[in-house]
Amino acid sequence: MRTLVLLALAGFLAQLVDGSLGMAYGVTSTTLLLLIGTNPAAASATVHLAEIGTTLASGVAHWRLGNVDWKVVGRIALPGAVGAFAGATFLSGLSTEVAKPVMSAILLALGLYLLVRFTAWGVSTRSLGRPVRRRFLIPLGLFGGFVDATGGGGWGPVGTPALLASGRMEPRKVIGSIDTSEFIVALAASLGFLVGLGSAGVNPGWAVALLVGGVAAAPVAAWIVRVFPPRVLGSAVGGLILLTNTRTILTSDWVTVSDPVRTAVYALVWLLWAAAVAWSVRAHLADRRACAVDRTRQSPEAVPAEE
Question: How does it sit in the membrane (predicted)?
Fold first, then answer.
């Protein structure tokens, strides 16, 4: 019973982060399942089974709050489903230890770019509203779905920064669209695991516990992304990508560093992230004050009444 309660709490927190930042549900939940002794394939299968419900609830919540671009969802979901099914069916037993550092290095650079871009310049309105091209979304969906199925999570970490970096969508629209399309990806991955693994190792009770916690958090997370300033949200996403992939690289076999050095690097990234978010909040408040002053100046002055 205690394990189920902890899993429900983990599902709630994971969905709260995923629904508001567009990533981390699969990574967080899979990590917890691995810590309690589940093998990687079964852990990924259990999480994706729970994600069928959590992503559906999250998608509905984002849709009701206007956070979804359905054209993007339609163009990225099907390739994502193909990639997820292929990864779950044929590659769930293949170690991703070699591929993970390479992907993490790419995401690390992209996360740093996002952190600098949103912190220093905010959201550019020059490209917002322009359609995201199909030739960009199809390979992105294939790759993101493949990584998501084989790594126990990755749809958000791959799709969210790539769409944010395009500069054509507001952060809340990116997050809402990625979370909504993940329902199709989770469904395809679950079908792939069912074909490749059957029900071996999958604990339905754990999946239900994760599902209950995630469904409870979905509307809260959708509200958070609706009211968060885009500049602050972009800095938060960039910092999360930076921190997550720094840890992946430093704990891989490709890099050998001592514990004190690793701790110092983590502390530096945390400080950089906190400083970036604080700067973005300050800049957002300054922009809001400037807009208020402009509206006051543009409003017609009161004309004194004639005596």
Answer: Multi-pass membrane protein
